Every structure is written in C-alpha cells, then in structure tokens.
Amino acid sequence: MAEPGTSFGQRLGPALLDSLLAAIIAFALFSLLLGLRMVDKVTGLTLQPRPVLLAVAVGIVFCGRLLLNLFVWHAEYPLTAPFAKLFTRAPFERRDLIVLGATLLVATLMFLFSLVIIDSAAFELVAASVFIFLGIGLVRRIIVQFFPDLPYGRIFTVGGIAFAVLFPICAYLLEKTFRLGLPLRYLLDLSILVLTYVMLGWGLNVVVGLAGLLDLGYVAFYAVGAYTFALLATHFGLGFWICLPIAGAAAALWGIILGFPVLRLRGDYLAIVTLAFGEIVRIVLLNWTEVTNGPNGVSGIPKPTFFGLPFAPSGDGTFSSFFGLKYDPLQGIIFLYYVILALAFITNLVTLKLRRLPIGRAWEALREDQIACRSLGINTTITKLTAFAIGAMFGGLAGSFFATRQGFISPESFTFIESAIILAIVVLGGMGSQLGVAIAAIVMVGGFEALRHTEGLQSIFGEGFDPALYRMLLFGIAMVGIMVWRPRGIIGSRSPSIVLDEARPIGGGLVREGRA
Amino acid sequence: MRSWEEDPLLRAEHLTMRFGGLTAVDDVSFAVGRHDITALIGPNGAGKTTVFNCITGFYKPTEGMIELRQPDGQIFRLEQLDDHDINARARVARTFQNIRLFQGMTVLENLMVAQHNVLMRASGLTVGAILGLGGFRQAEKDAVDFARYWLDRVNLTARADEPAGELPYGDQRRLEIARAMCTRPLLLCLDEPAAGLNARESDALNELLYSIRKQDDIAILLIEHDMSVVMRISDHVVVLDYGRLIADGTTAEARNDPRVIAAYLGVPDEELPVVEREVGL
Amino acid sequence: MAYFLQQLINGIALGSIYGLIAIGYTMVYGIIGMINFAHGDIFMVGAFIALILFLALLSLGVTMIPLALLIVLLLAMVLTAVWGWTVERIAYRPLRESFRLAPLITAIGMSIVLQNFIQVAQGARVKPLQPVVTGGYTLFTEGDFAVNLSNIQILIVVTTLVLMTVFWLIITRTALGRSQRACEQDRLMAALSGVNVDRTISLTFVLGAALAAVAGLLYLLYYGVIDFYIGFVAGIKAFTAAVFGGIGSLPGAMLGGLIIGLIETFWSAYFTIEYKDVAAFSMLAIVLIFFPTGLLGRPEVEKV
C-alpha cells in the first residue's frame, strides 16, 4: 500500500492491483449466487445466467475500490475530508471549497439534466440527497460560526421535545385549516412506530447500557406485555388503562422469574440464555393454542379511551361528541401518539431519575467491575435482577401499547429480529445515552420505513423492483456501516450521575461494557 | 500473650485452600489485632492473596474457619458469609492487587457507590426516593460530605469530577483505599498498596495508612512486598512461604527470623547446611 | 427398542450437522471472544452454493454421483470460505480492538445482509433438490417396524468424523493451530512473538466457513429443501450446541451438537414436535445453571 505523500502515478499501480484483487474476490462471492438464478420450472429448478448483473456488481466493486484507493484511503488529501469538515469547527481551506462547490455543481447539473431531458426520479433523488446533506452542513457551519458558545446539546434536546409535543396538533390544525394534503395519517403512524422503538430502546438501555447485561431476548417481555393486555381485554373486557400497569407488572415478574436462575451466568452465556428465553416465549405463544389462539393471534383488542371517552364515529359519550367536535379518525391516532409519547417520556424520566439514585449508580458500577462491587458490599444478584425487571417492565408497557395500537397481535411480531433491532438501536445510539438511543431509533426505524416509499429507486432498478425487499438488505448494511464508522455509537460519552463542582463528560474509551 | 492475641478482631484458624491438587494455603492460623497494622508477607506464590480472598469471601476455604469479632461482641464466621455480606455486615473492606476502580465513573461516583447500602436504605429501596419520601436528600448530602472528607484525606478533592480511569497510577491506588474506607469498615485489607509507587508516593501512603490506624482506629491487614514499608509501619508480621505459616510476630522478630531470611533471600549453597540446622530442617 | 434405535440414528445424523456448524462458532469465540451471529447464515450461503453447483453440474451433464459430490464439496468449501473471509474483513476486523458489543451488532447486521442478499438474488421460495444420495440398509425389523440406516446418514456421520479428525490434527499439529491457540491465550503476546494475528483470525473464519459449507451441503442432501431462512434457525441451534458443550472447546462443540440433535429428535419422537426447540433451549438453560461454562468448557477461575 502506498504511503501518503507519494505521487498519484506512484499510487496508481498498487491501487489498480488492490482493486483487481477486490474484483476477483467479488467475482468469487457473486459468480454463483448473483450470476446464476434458480428458476422454478415444471421439470424442477433450472439455472438462468445473469452475466450482465454479475458484471455490474463486480464492476461496482472494482471502480468503487479504485476510487476509494486513489482519492480517499492513503491519499494525501482525501476527498471526503471537506464533507467531514462541514460537521466540525475546523476552518475551510481553498481546496475544501472547490470540492464542495464542484459537488454542488454536479448535483445541480444532474438535477437540471433530469428535469429537462430524461426525467429520471433516480437522478433527482440523488441530487436532492446531496442538496439536503450540504444544506444541513452549511446551515450548521453558519450557526456555529456566529454563535459558537450556545449550549447546543440542550437546545437540541429541548427543541426535540417541543417538536415531539407540538408536531401532531400543529400538523392537524394546519391540515384542517389550509387543506395542504399532508400525508398526516402516514406521518403519525410512522412517528408512533418510531416512538415505540425509542421507548423499547430506552427500556433495554437500562439492562444493556447501564447494567451491562447483554439481553438478546428483550422481545419476550414486549410479547408478555402485549399478550397480557390482549388476553385480559378480550377475555375479561378490561380496558387499556387498567391493563397497562398489570402488563408492566407481569413483564417485570417474568423478568425476575427468568432472571433469577440465569443472572449469575457471565457475559455471552447470559446472552444466549436470554436469546433462548425469547425463542421459548415465542414458540409457546405459537403453540399454546387454547390460550393464545396460536399463529392466528388475538384480534379485536380495544383502543385506549380518553378518560373513559372512546374514539368512535358515532354514539353518545364519545370523544368527539363530548367535546363537540366533528368525528375524524385522525383524532384517535393523535391520541395514540400522545399515549406513546407519554409512555416514552415516563421511561426516560424514570431512567434518568434512577441513574441518580444509588440503584442506578450500582448498575453502572456493575457494568464497570462486578468484583469490585461485591467487595463494596453490593448484592450483585439483586442489583442485576432489579435492572432486568425494570427493563422488562418498560418492555411490557411498550408491548401493551403495541397491542392496543395494532388491535391485533400474533407471535409473528415477536421474533428474534425485533430483539436484534432494539439492541442495535441501543448500541448504535451509544450505550447508556438516552439522546443517542432516540436518535438511533429515528434514523434506523424512520429511515427503514421511509425506504418503503421510495418510488425513485424503481427507476434505477426497473419496474419489477420491490423496495420492501431491499429494505432489510439496506438496513443490515446500515447497521454494519454505522457501527464500523462509530464503534462507540452516535453519542459515545457518559455524563456523571453526581457532581462536586463541574460536570465533564467521560470519554467512551473509559466506559466499560460489562464483560463479566 | 501478644497484644493481637488478647482480643483479636479477626482470627483465622487452620485455614486451608486447595485448587485441585494444589494446596495454595496449608493449615494457616493467625490473628489480626484490633488496633494493629498487620502485614502478611512472603515470597511470590506464598499464598498471600489466596488468604486475602478467603477472608474477603472471593474464595471459600477448603478447611478452617475465619472469625471476626466486632466491638459490640457480635461474631461473624466469614467463611460462611456471601462475599457482599462480608463487607456489608462483617465490615471488612479490601483493595485489589491490580486496581479495580470503576474506571468510567468519576472519582466522586466511585465513593458514592461505596456507600451503596447506606444510601439504598435511605432511599427506601429506591421507591421512597422516587416518590420524594424519606430523608434521601439529606442522606445523599451526608454521603457526599463523607466522600469529600475521604477525598481530602487522600488529597484528591480537586479531581473529584474526573473519571477514575484517567487518574495517574498513584492516585488510583489512594482512591481505591478511600473507596474501601467509604464502606466504613472495621478491617481494611490492602493487597500490595505500595506496588508501583515511587518513593514519594510510597511515603504518602505510609502516612495515610498510619493515620487510618491512629486517627480512625481501624485495623489494617496488608500484603506487601516492599520491606521498607512493612518494617516501618507494621506492628505485627505474618510470614507465609509455600502456603505455610513460617513466622508470626513483631517486625523485629520477623526481621531476625532465619527462616524468613532464608525464604526471602535464599541462601548461598555453602551456607545452606548451617541455615537448615538453624531453621530446624 | 427399534423405535428408540431409529431415533438415535436420526438424532446422531442431525447432531453431526449441528456439530459441524458449532465448530465455527466455538473457534471464533475462542480466538476473538465474539459471537459470530452471521455464521448460521454462512452455513445457509454454503447450502445455496452447493445447490447451484449441483444444478450447474447436472446441466453440464455430470451424472456420476460420487464425482459430482466431490466437486460440489470442494468448490462449495472454497467459495463459502471466501464469504467467511469477506465477512470478517468487512465487519469484524475494523472493530478488532474496540468495544465488545460493536462486532456483535455488525455480526447481526451481516446476518441480516446475507439473508436478504440471498432472498433478493435467489428469491424467497424454498428450493428443492431431487434426492442425490439414495438407498440404505435395513438393520433389523421388530414387528412391522424396520430400523433403517440410509446412505445419506452414513455419509453425514462419516464425513463429520473425517472432518473432525482432520480438523483436530490441524489444531493440534500444525503451525496454524499453534498460532490459533496462541491468539486465544493472549493476542498481544502472540503478535509480539511473531504470530500474524490478522492472518490467523482470517484463517479461523475461513476454516469455520468451510466446515459450515460442508454442513450446508449435508443439510441440503439430507432434507432436500433449503431456503434463505435456514441459517437463522440452524445457527441458533448450533450456537446453543457450542455453549452447551462449553464454548471454545472443539470436542465440546461436537458433543453439544450431538446432544442438541438427540434432544430434538427424541422430543419430537416421544412428545410433541412443536416444542422440540423449547426442550433444547430449556436443557441449555438448565445445563448452564449447573455448569456455568458448559459441559466441557474450562471452568472460569475468577481472577481477583
């Protein structure tokens, strides 16, 4: 590999060689799996060659690797530097501006080219992404330039909360007044989904981020909460608000029952046992047909009421009739949004409060060093159990919300992949950081859902392209990418739980992750 | 009868610890005086840390018993207690040979974790504190004051809000002692507290230990390799070699005991018969 | 008795496949201390590569079954090994010295990527293969119940035994095995003593993936259908097997594989097939409670 400072010509040879090797490996990887497709025929499976696709894939690897070799890795001046600089406070050099300007120019030309001549959504999508990215970076630079000392962390948090509280009401009123044709229903559903994951992330954060216990079966508690409410509601006609605490308590109880025998296991042994419990719960839900109705699930789960007032189109004593409003299905959805927002806030506040109490500090100490904890007289089993139970409780609360929102649940919703996604949110967010978890949930779940609606991609890959299929693929790639880019998560520092003089964030490199 | 045998704080009797076929500690009995600094010394591999781990509950001894008698007459059999109860109830605190601080937590947080049990009770097992009941606020303030007191004692007040992992080595050693002291122990067990310290830090440590014994009247049991530290501050020396007790007495006695000299220094070949005769082998 | 014997044979065949996959988990765990969640999907990729190779050979007119099997076996091992190598290179090596949970998340990410890549590239429908290895022996009959030992079962057990032996020799007799054990003990010290740590770890992934490819091929031959999801289920089972036997221990992985295979088979045969996984997982939890480091795992001495 060439050293920095060598000339372009000197680097070209090794770069070509390296890219060629990458292309050969790509060929080995893709030759059979991408280059040949198995097609069902009457006579059985036959193979259909796809040489063009294979060539494109290998070509992308070769060109991508070559460009990266020449202009990013080992380059004296990596072309990605100016873009990274947008998000720092370092001063721009002339060549930074040239690169940024050139990018902007290319994106604009692409946009115009598409608009005037070929009308390709793909081109416009790419150009728009570039505009948005550069725009955010520039606006950020300008604000930081003029107000260097504002408490940005706090502004961001307060702004985020204010937005979360005001968004549905404002959007609803705007929509009703001006009839903008916003896809309000979709936006609300998406926000509710994101908030559910934020809450789950915060709940799991207690177990993984604070106490350092690797739990791969968190979805079990989500399922327990969901089924507790669903069964109580459908069998005994109980309402959401009565069942919510019951579901939380049931999940916490399960956390204790499952946790008690296994919490003395170390690290990865605990991980696999929790995974096993997650699967056991799902299999039992699937097969215990008399109670859970098996794979058919439970349906007809009631929606929550507004202090006893249901959201129904007609009849006396409904929300709309009581307040003298015209019935609108959106009202119920907005209410659901506020319910999950409140639940998520409670999760957050309780967690923040607990962190400042002895129990929370003991959790973190447990993550740092279990043996030292024991030497200080801390009963590690009970401390772990409380973390497990509280995490489980939040999972259970989120679960019963999930049940009431969907109105229907089945074991399908509680697979390992859910646990993995929630864990990914916690780790990607930065373990222990509440803000980081929220950002990760928005990026991962929001981005993931948004992909469902990118018609633009169809024009790249042709009509038969189904974005939903590629969604999971991109999700996986994003998971790997973000983690490699920021192994400590989006927010990798920890803030102290108690301060004598002045709070200073603690670098992520020091914070342990609970090996024992 | 020696001073530490009259009314010992801790008595280990016939302590034996085997790992598989290896006998790390073999029928060791000794006492730790209530007002003494007791040093547990011996060459590498003599079984000192194993004795420590038995006392502090990290190992369960294969045979023997360890009895701790508190000033109010309450007796604890340490080999029967869970490790956390040895600190919480019998009130024995310890440090570790390779420092075990909560590195990602601040200095102050380390000392707050050490007061976990007190604070936990004050917080009404968390429920009370969340509901704002009880005197948790006051208890927390007291805990911070107590932590600050110990920070002053070990000279770390200025670094209270720094992560423990960022402190220099000598400070980490002292912080670990302060953290152990914050559990309000009767017996403080220190595993090689002077290891890796320079001469000045070592002196400061001596002073600290001396003041803990003198001012706080807390018994100290320490493992140490640095003979200058041992000889200067200890009242009572227990010497182990190959898992056996080979000497138990005052510093002066230990210093002159030929078996101790032999175990420590080894002897030149030509003198071996002489020493062996003296030692009684 | 006859029924029991038949289940025993079935259980051993299934357990052998789990054991082969479990070795990949246990080796990687031993050397870098991470759960390679994508390993189950490497097994699945191996099965797909094997299937495509079979189809290709058929269309090329290779009809001699032993020859076809040999070609498929070798090529599938090589190509799957490349996948194993690539996964390590992309998702784990950049995170080698960082935070422990980071590679776990990239591993889950890689698992998602592999599953969905196969789904996108080859379609979601199950892929059947007509029986390649047929026939067998009837050992004896008891009443009207015949105990059968099929050729494919013989093939599975023999292949597993041969591979285990070869593998055992590699680990205990070769320079690679020594380097591997050195890296397990202390990676830094191994590097300082001249062991190429990166290459050793890469080779570990390559070997694990090659064995997974064999498992994939055997699975394909035994069951005759595969889909993109088989890696997840088999992966969890195999990982359970590795933990069961004591993670880090090669004989433990094989033993764990056999036990999980037997539990599953016997539970399905004598109780309910729906709860066979519950039985296997519950056994795991119970065993871990009494042997916290698995059956053959080195007991972890708590260093204080």
Descriptors for this entry?
heterotrimer; B: 281 residues; alpha/beta; Rossmann fold; 2 domains; six-stranded mixed beta sheet; four-stranded antiparallel beta sheet; 13 helices; 22% strand; globular; C: 304 residues; mainly alpha; two-stranded antiparallel sheet; two-stranded antiparallel ribbon; 4 strands; 6% strand
Could you explain how this protein is built, in words?
The complex is a heterotrimer of chains A (516), B (281) and C (304). Chain A is mainly α and 516 residues long. Chain A has 20 helices and 4 strands. In chain A, the strands form 2 sheets. Chain A has a two-stranded antiparallel ribbon with strand order 1-2. A two-stranded antiparallel sheet of chain A has the order 3-4. In chain A, a hairpin with a 2-residue loop joins strand 1 (36-41) and strand 2 (44-49). The mean pLDDT of chain A is 84. Chain B has a 6-stranded mixed beta sheet, with helices on both faces. Chain B has a 4-stranded antiparallel beta sheet with strand order 2-1-4-5, covered by helices on one side. In chain B, helix 7 (136-153) packs across helix 8. Chain B has 2 domains: 1-91 and 185-281, P-loop containing nucleotide triphosphate hydrolases (Rossmann fold), CATH 3.40.50.300; 100-183, no CATH class. The model of chain B has no long low-confidence stretch (mean pLDDT 84). Chain B starts with a helix and ends with a helix. Chain B has 281 residues and is of the alpha/beta class. Chain C is 73% helix and 6% strand. Chain C has helices at 2-32, 39-60, 65-92, 101-122, 151-173, 175-185, 187-192, 197-223, 230-245, 250-270, 276-290, and strands at 127-128, 136-142, 145-150, 225-226. In chain C, 50% of the residues are buried. Chains A and C meet through helix 1, strand 1, strand 2, helix 10 and helix 17 of A and helix 2, helix 3, helix 4, strand 1 and helix 9 of C.
Number of strands of chain B: 10
Radius of gyration of chain C: 19 Å
- In CATH terms, what is the architecture of the largest domain in chain B? 3-Layer(aba) Sandwich
Query: What Rg of chain B do the Cα atoms give?
Result: 20 Å
Strand order of the largest sheet of chain B: 6-7-8-3-9-10
Strand order of the largest sheet of chain C: 1-4
Gross geometry of chain B: globular
The general outline of chain C is globular
Count up the domains of chain B: 2
Q: Uncertain regions of chain C: pLDDT < 50 for 5+ in a row? A: none
CATH superfamily of the largest domain in chain B: P-loop containing nucleotide triphosphate hydrolases
CATH fold title of the largest domain in chain B: Rossmann fold
